[in-house]
Known about the structure:
The chain is α+β, with helices and mostly antiparallel strands.
Amino acid sequence: MNSADGSLSVEMIRWTFTVAQEHRVEIETHLLDLGLEIQARGDDVLVVTWDEPEGGIDELIEELWAINGEPFEITHEEFHRASLLVYHPEDSAPSESAAA
């Protein structure tokens, strides 16, 4: 959905970061409790996706750093929905009864 000023809203954020092994479970648990999705790459790299984020990004990063015991680098990517299309095969056009 576009805002009034014409900019696109953020539909999803993806973070990629490396955490200290001894704090990984605690960080994963914290993120899962907040409803974020996590993928692990190896023993220490986490990829976190946050659908339709609402505020609190800086605060959440501070929380993660506190759990880890020290700051770590986070690659932050934002994804915007520029358009949404639904494709239907030609042979599955809606029937007349469904259109009525």
